[in-house]
Amino acid sequence: AAILLKLGGYGLIRISSMLNPHPPNLMFPIMILALWGILMTSSICLRQTDLKALIAYSSVSHMGLVTAAIIVQTPWGLTGAMTLMVAHGLTSSALFALANTNYERTHTRTLLLVRGLQLIFPLMSTWWLLTNLTNMAMPPTINLLGELFIISTLFNWSPPTIIITGIGTLITATYSLYMFLMTQRGSISTQFRILPPTHTREHLTLTLHLLPLGLLIMKPSLISGLFA
Which ranges does the record mark as transmembrane (predicted)? Predict the structure, then answer.
């Protein structure tokens, strides 16, 4: 999710520039699939019971935005695509790292079985909250900048797309909160009362994921291609 999808996005950028200007019979079907994929994969996230499957489908949903922005082939679209790919690469990797810390201790990825971990791992719960807020593109994260560029590009291309991107953003916020509440809140099962503590290396790993996301908003031109 963090590497291979971004390589695919890079390939789309290189190939799309070779096909510019796009023939309409090639552009519209891909755009429709990308926009429809945003809604479908976001909706699938709402009914997932496996934590890693939820995070994986979340990555596919974000890449639908990236694909749509690349197909439009405007400077704003490519800037938003590059920004969101870097931002989501760090966010998705952090979510998988958090899911792995849960799995190493509980040996299950089922959301219904593992709840209330905030009581046992309060610091890890803070990482979960920050990462989920980043995943739903809360300000002042770089994810918000990328999504704003992409949504503006698609609206300029076709105003009705604001409905699809708006619903997709709303569903993204919904399943991000769902993921946080299902893993951190509620009453914990009696079989998970005693769990191994978290390690410094795990907190260092998450710091190295989220610190760049916080610092990049101060100079987004490093990843966006804008040199103002």
Answer: 26-46, 53-72, 78-99, 111-130, 162-183
Domain boundaries, the chain: 3-222
Q: What are phi and psi of 142, to 5 degrees?
A: -70, -20
How far is 188 from 18, CA to CA, in rounded Å?
A: 54
Which one-letter amino acid corresponds to residue 223?
Answer: I
Q: HEC string of 42-62?
A: HHHHCCCCEHHHHHHHHHHHH
For residues 140 and 88, what is the distance between their CA atoms, to the nearest angstrom?
14
- Residues 42/61, Cβ–Cβ less than 8 Å: yes
pLDDT by residue (tens digit) across 192-208?
777 888 899 999 999 99
180, amino acid identity: F
The pLDDT tens digits for 110-126 are 888 888 888 888 899 99
Beta strands in 1-134 (DSSP E): none
> Which pTM was predicted?
0.89
- φ, ψ for residue 110, nearest 5 deg: -75, 125
Residue 66 has which token pair? 């990236």
